[in-house]
Write a structure and sequence with these properties.
Elements (H helix, E strand, L loop, with lengths): L2 H18 L7 H16 L9 H5 L3 H12 L9 H18 L7 H19 L31 H21 L1 H12 L1
């Protein structure tokens, strides 16, 4: 899927999950970090591509992208698997507490937001023709529906004109129907 679709699915997943499982408290710094982390998590599995948007944000990012492309060996390999999810989670729990000040930012919520984006990315990529190697290093690629020709072609008309508008419509409907939990979360932020 395109990064634009991943961004929307990632954000929609975050809104949906936090509406059902709201945090007990959240400040503005954590809220913003969660939003940024969620979008970053939504494109994180594609770090195995040198064209990933994350590389454009870093000085020398294109060089790092080329190096990591060789480390991951191919697109939709380790970074799109259950093992990759586990390794990203462990890496985040090692790195973020060292960079985020726990007096200002709840890094647990940020990690959860990143993981929501990351998992939504992998699940949405399982809807594409290519599928995802959930059980990497096994070569089998998982996809839904099981017949690959019935799946979405990345960047083609179905993604652009059916999937993206459908997810956007779901987000608008969900926020409209679940205004109370969404407003309660926003009230926590502005306290």
């Amino acid at each position: 899927m395109t990064s634009r679709t991943h961004d929307l699915i990632s954000f929609t997943s975050l809104v949906t999950i936090t509406s059902y499982y709201p945090p007990s408290s959240i400040n503005m710094a954590t809220f913003i970090s969660c939003l940024v982390g969620n979008v970053a998590g939504g494109v994180l599995p594609d770090i195995d591509q040198e064209s990933n948007r994350l590389w454009d944000l870093l000085p020398g990012g294109n060089y790092v992208g080329k190096v990591l492309k060789n480390v991951f060996l191919s697109h939709r390999g380790l970074s799109h698997s259950l093992l990759g999810v586990f390794l990203f989670y462990k890496l985040l729990y090692f790195i973020l507490p060292r960079f985020l000040n726990p007096d200002f930012i709840n890094y647990d919520l940020v990690i959860i937001s990143i993981m929501i984006g990351l998992i939504s990315h992998i699940l949405s990529d399982s809807l594409t023709e290519e599928g995802v190697p959930l059980f990497f290093p096994l070569k089998f690629k998982f996809g839904f529906p099981p017949i690959s020709s019935w799946r979405i072609k990345t960047g083609k008309w179905f993604e652009k004109y059916v999937l993206f508008p459908s997810v956007l419509a779901f987000l608008i409907w969900f926020v409209t129907v679940n205004q109370k939990p969404v407003v309660e979360i926003l009230k926590l932020v502005v306290r």
